[in-house]
Q: What sequence folds into this?
């Protein structure tokens, strides 16, 4: 598991599985993790959906992406991160992915 702080002014905490590259994002308001792989990849390529389609700033605005330790991630949210809370969104994603693949195979 790799922990990433992403952003320039406002930092978003991600946990990413290094093998599958599935990522979860920490929501501080709800004190909960959510699967959010697309957001991490949008940040990696610098995609800004708020920019007009013909804007030179729509792509390439790559924010600061810093890999941090679990201890630093815990410090950033002010509490310990448990294996159970990290596993839950990954398991949910895996279940939804398997259901999706089963539907695809039926067609």
A:
């Amino acid at each position: 598991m790799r922990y990433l702080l992403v952003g320039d002014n406002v930092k978003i905490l991600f946990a990413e599985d290094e093998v599958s590259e599935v990522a979860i994002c920490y929501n501080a308001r709800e004190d909960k993790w959510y699967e959010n792989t697309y957001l991490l990849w949008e940040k990696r390529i610098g995609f800004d959906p708020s920019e007009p389609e013909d804007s030179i700033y729509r792509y390439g605005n790559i924010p600061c992406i810093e890999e941090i330790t679990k201890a630093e991630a815990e410090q950033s949210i002010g509490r310990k991160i448990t294996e159970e809370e990290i596993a839950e969104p990954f398991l949910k994603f895996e279940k939804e992915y398997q259901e999706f693949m089963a539907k695809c195979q039926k067609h």
Notes: The beta strands are 2-6, 12-16, 23-27, 32-35, 65-68. The chain has a mean pLDDT of 85. Residues 24 and 35 are 4 Å apart (CA to CA). The chain has one domain: 2-106.
